[in-house]
Amino acid sequence: MKLKDLVKQWFKKWETGDYLNLPITENFKHTSPIGTIDGKKDYLALVKENEDKFLGQTFDIHDIIVEKDKACARYTAKQGKEFSLDVSEWYYFKGNLIDKIIAYYHIGEIREDRKLENPKKSL
Questions:
Q1: Record's superkingdom (predicted)?
Q2: Residue 68 carries which DSSP code?
């Protein structure tokens, strides 16, 4: 299977709620601003406990860039009318499975000392 198709399969599994059959290794590792989850078993257990936050999302995929054994996807996740999150994720593969994901997205408000002074509407 082509790596780009594997990434697309990842999103399809989430959109259909079929997270128990994600194409991930037993040693799968997911790192995000929330923290790191080690192992398929722990990852799936976390999802099960928080299905309301994980399921029912749709994904507007903007880019998927593929190299020899890794890929990067930039997308917007949406859940209902109120939730939208812009994400960039790096996928690392072993065989025809995803072994590791490193996700980048903004969670929370920007600290006052990090806000720009007099920002222009478009840079």
A1: Bacteria
A2: S
Residue ranges of the alpha helices (H) in the chain? 3-16, 40-49, 51-54
- C-alpha to C-alpha distance for 51 and 29, rounded to whole angstroms: 19
Determine if residue 24 is left, alpha or beta; phi over 0 gives left, psi from -120 to 50 gives alpha, anything else beta.
beta
**pLDDT tens-digit profile, the chain (123 residues):** 699 999 999 999 999 999 999 999 999 999 999 899 999 999 999 999 988 888 999 999 999 999 999 999 999 999 988 889 999 999 999 989 999 999 999 877 766 776 656 555 544
Helices (H), 62-108: none
| Backbone Cα Rg of the chain | 16
**Domain-located, residue 117:** no
- Give me the number of domains the chain comprises: 1
**Domain span including residue 22:** 3-106
Residue 7 is part of a domain; what is its CATH number?
A: 3.10.450.50
Please check whether residue 15 lies inside any domain of the structure.
yes
In a domain, 120, yes or no: no
